[in-house]
Amino acid sequence: MKSVLGYTAHQFGRALIMPNTAPPITKVGQASTYRRQIKKALKDIGFSKTFEPLMTLYLTDKTTVAEIEKAAKSGFVKAVKYYPPNATTNSQNGATDLQKLKPVFEKMQELGLVLCLHGETIKSNIFGDSTRQGKVGVMQREKVFLAEKLTWLVSGFPKLKIVLEHITTKEAVYFVKNARKGVAATITAHHLLATIDDVIESHHNKCMPILKEEADRQALLDAATSGNKRFFAGTDSAPHSKTKKETACGCAGCFTAPLAIELYAEAFDERDAWDKLEGFMSLYGADFYGLSRNKSTVTITRQKTVIPQSVTYGEKELVVLFWAEKELSFLATFD
Amino acid sequence: MKSVLGYTAHQFGRALIMPNTAPPITKVGQASTYRRQIKKALKDIGFSKTFEPLMTLYLTDKTTVAEIEKAAKSGFVKAVKYYPPNATTNSQNGATDLQKLKPVFEKMQELGLVLCLHGETIKSNIFGDSTRQGKVGVMQREKVFLAEKLTWLVSGFPKLKIVLEHITTKEAVYFVKNARKGVAATITAHHLLATIDDVIESHHNKCMPILKEEADRQALLDAATSGNKRFFAGTDSAPHSKTKKETACGCAGCFTAPLAIELYAEAFDERDAWDKLEGFMSLYGADFYGLSRNKSTVTITRQKTVIPQSVTYGEKELVVLFWAEKELSFLATFD
Fold first, then answer.
1. Which of A44, A111, A223, B167 could form a disulfide with B185 if both were Cys (CB 3.0 to 4.6 A apart)?
2. Residue A138 is nearest to which of B200, B247, B249, comparing CB atoms?
3. What strands, in cross-sheet order, belong to the sheet with A52-58?
4. Which of B129, B140, B199 lies at the smallest CB-CB distance from A200?
């Protein structure tokens, strides 16, 4: 944590802390401990600026209404995160039957707790063409999720605040753009910048949901630079050690935290959409979560910046950065 | 060569030897030397059965009509292979302008030399939606090739024998099925068995053209098991060392030679298409190339066979097999 947390805290005043740790953060008590650990780690590395970790709970089949009430009361738990089982890193505890969690969603809706979604369906038998032995293909998982689960959540809980995280397809853009009020989506820097081609070229670009095709990337750029408040930044930055990435398999996750703002700037520059960057990066997300807007200033200047190859990770490991050694056109400075 | 050639020679009576070596085989003289080396290597490893290497020439911008005449006269050069520049291993010398090679294609057509195609377009500006900075996305390259190059070749040289090699998409199946006489396609075992999901899971499944989606795999199975003589086996087996595969990038190629027939059997078994296997494996390809059919017999029995993890490669290296350690349901024996 001490190796990588500083990068996020340096670039952002706060971050939504994902609960897919090992073991997962399923209780408010665990979230509280994790939050303290984060604050202590920042102190230990001598970080002095304000950084607010916004905590989340991991939705499992055992999540209770009582825990939701406790979460809402805590003040520091801002969202509950759904992972489809076996979709991504440490997702094996994800809820298997959303229907049974109806009372949980109703309580979240009542108390204004946000439902964050890893929006993929891994197992399904209702879309034969994209499915093999009940397992949905990586390129189709988000699309199947929209039809199979998201429609039900959006209409079944009409006031539930829902964030479809790290969207990847033109279909997801279309869905969110046309959904009811209270439905939003985050977009990562790497999904704005790269495609499945980059995954084929390097495991360091492998993440879940997988990067899609150029037509999808263009739709994500359309959404991000549109000024539509339903779309805002969410890095999904995930540090995995070099040795765990550089294998035949390579685990899923892109590490973008050290230059996240510069990466987003690079994407927005492709569309000359400078006037839309602040809203996407700093305002719409805070507004959606009902948080006060940060007061500090980030200044982005046009200046060549080479992405470092890697940063140290623990005592003996390295984490390779997304787009390592590429040259960016921007540098962000912070007051 | 001595490490891996025996696997192919054990399973097959002959094979089309690809010319994308370093340096490439562009002249009949080189093909003749390579052919002798292959025969010598088989002798050196004590291989006693008949194995006929069918040679190919690498099509470059410098390929001449005279070389085509020489190739046809040689008797052992059976085809000329087109690689789009930078599409796959050692493809950097591929012809850049097919229009300028018109006299070459006309001579091939006249003399009955087959044109084998790595059917992908890498650079193109005419399909904006699938293209980034002039580079076509990996999932779209075969589809773009059909429209941009193959239509021109098929109609421009109406008697030229064309094999679209290692096809991967439902669009390619449709094209070949409906094309004029003299147009055929090969299908690899790995494209019949795996999809882009398997590439994401392991670099050992990475090959070019990249494995596509489940709907494409189903279309390939349809074609292979249809009994249509335009579709026949072509393994595209490519040994790369474990160390070259298990990196962040991982070079392109699947090594299927040691159990190629068993892998094809596994695919045909999915459709219970046993009556179509012999034609696909042994007859249609020979007929298309105008070769006499092999007389030896291959017997496939239902017997659990675990694919070995790897085989030795040179003095210090290993090659990991496609689908290493998976259990197949068949074993092939040879008279």
1. B167
2. B200
3. A14-17, A52-58, A77-82, A114-117, A162-164, A183-187, A231-233
4. B199
